[in-house]
Amino acid sequence: WTETFPLTAITSILNDDLHMTPGNISEYFAITFLPWMWKPLYGMISDSFPLAGYHRSPYMMIASLGIAFSYLAMAFGVQSRLS
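The structure corresponding to this sequence follows.
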C-alpha cells in the first residue's frame, strides 16, 4: 500500500501533466528504482567499511542527501512538453 498508492498519483502526473509516453514512464521508474537493486551491495559495504565508527548511520545520511539532490534535480530539470 505505501509503495503502490503514491505510484498511482506519480504515474498520473507523469502521464497527464508532463505528457510522457508509457515507454518514458517505464524508463523513469526503472531509473528511480535502480538503487533498490543495489541494497545488498550497500549492506556489505556499510558492514565492511564503517565511517566514523558507525556502520549504517553515515551511509543512510549520504543516501538521504543523494535522494534529496536527485528529487531537486528532477524538480528543476524536468520540463513539460507544453512549455
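The helical segments are 4-17, 22-32, 34-37, 39-48, 57-77.
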